[in-house]
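hey m, so remember when u said the tokens were messed up on ur end? i reran from scratch. heres the input so u can diff it against urs
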Amino acid sequence: MTEAAVTGLEEQRVRGLLAAAGMPASEAEVAACVASVPVVRGMAALLHAAEGLRYLDPALRFRAEPGGR
């Protein structure tokens, strides 16, 4: 598939997602979304690549206990 065909397919997907969400967008906004698709895909791949971190606590937790310090 050529780069132009991939870009056209991505534009169709972006337009479909925006329409499904009921979000109107200008041509410039659609173009910006299409241009950001490779970045977003890369970030999603990184999220899935972190196997060992999947079930770790994302932040420190405060556990209130009666009589605790």
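this time it looks ok to me. The first helix runs from residue 3 to 20. if urs says something different then somethings off w ur setup not the seq
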